[in-house]
């Protein structure tokens, strides 16, 4: 079976191919003809997710059922996720603000110009619609994720539940709280379940779920 080779169809390339077929054209003419045919420059579009797993919907239904059982019994349920790390320093931020003159920031986002790196870890309580973000400055590891959950659990200002000797954690399947990292599992057992004396159940959403 032959291998398909994708070639960048630039105006110069298309012109050379047409000239090889003895057409007398230039890149400007090729560009005009492409516009007449409703062609335009397009970037790749992330949309294809591959073939869906036959049990994908069943997994969502199972997680929803477990969540309802925890709530019915009075236990807490949280959704957790780490977000993209951000450089801390005099860097450009998206958005605009009312002011007389713009704030001057660095032209480039070089790591060497950063004071440090911030790693946000979000914890959301869907029953009370209450969220919290814990920011780390080291790395996105299972240890950091479990420390953030521990801080949330021991926070006296968060909404409470009738019973808190069990905890359901919902998360995606990758990153520091993925289903593969052993550090995440060990930290949950030693530094959360054993230390606090609670039972912990973790359920991972299917691939591609945030």
Q: What is the overall silhouette?
A: elongated
Strand content: 15-25%
**Overall number of domains:** 2
Largest sheet composition = 6 strands, mixed
Query: What is the chain-wise order of helices and strands?
Result: HHHEEEEHEHE
Radius of gyration: 26 Å
Q: Tally of extended strands?
A: 6
Distance between the termini: 38 Å
Structural class: alpha/beta
How would you characterize this protein structure?
With 210 residues, this protein is an alpha/beta fold. The protein has helices at residues 11-20, 27-36, 56-73, 142-153, 182-196; strands spanning 77-82, 86-88, 116-125, 130-136, 166-171, 199-204. Strands 1, 2, 3, 4, 5 and 6 form a 6-stranded mixed beta sheet that branches. Strand 5, helix 5 (182-196) and strand 6 (199-204) form a beta-alpha-beta unit. The radius of gyration is 26 Å and the shape is elongated. The protein starts with 10 loop residues before the first helix and ends in a 6-residue tail after the last strand. The relative contact order is 0.14.
SSE map:
Layout: H1 11-20, H2 27-36, H3 56-73, E1 77-82, E2 86-88, E3 116-125, E4 130-136, H4 142-153, E5 166-171, H5 182-196, E6 199-204
Parallel strand pairs: 1-5, 5-6
Antiparallel strand pairs: 1-3, 2-3, 3-4
What would a concise description of this structure say?
The chain has helices at residues 11-20, 27-36, 56-73, 142-153, 182-196; strands spanning 77-82, 86-88, 116-125, 130-136, 166-171, 199-204. With 210 residues, the chain is α/β, with parallel strands linked by helices.
């Amino acid at each position: 079976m032959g291998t398909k080779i994708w070639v960048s169809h630039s105006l110069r390339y298309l012109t050379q191919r047409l000239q090889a077929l003895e057409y007398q054209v230039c890149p400007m003419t090729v560009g005009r003809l492409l516009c007449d045919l409703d062609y335009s420059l397009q970037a790749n579009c992330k949309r294809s997710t591959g073939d869906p797993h036959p049990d994908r919907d069943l997994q969502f239904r199972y997680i929803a059922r477990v969540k309802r059982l925890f709530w019915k019994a009075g236990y807490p349920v949280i959704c957790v996720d780490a977000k993209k790390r951000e450089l801390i320093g005099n860097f450009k931020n998206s958005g605009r603000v009312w002011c007389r003159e713009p704030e001057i920031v660095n032209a480039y986002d070089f790591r060497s110009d950063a004071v440090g790196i911030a790693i946000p870890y979000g914890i959301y309580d869907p029953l009370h619609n209450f969220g919290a973000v814990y920011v780390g400055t080291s790395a996105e590891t299972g240890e950091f994720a479990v420390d953030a959950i521990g801080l949330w659990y021991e926070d006296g200002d968060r909404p409470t539940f009738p019973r808190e000797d069990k905890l359901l954690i919902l998360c995606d399947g990758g990153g520091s709280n993925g289903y593969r990292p052993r550090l995440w599992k060990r930290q949950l057992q030693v530094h959360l379940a054993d230390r606090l004396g609670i039972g912990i159940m973790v359920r991972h959403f299917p691939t591609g779920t945030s």
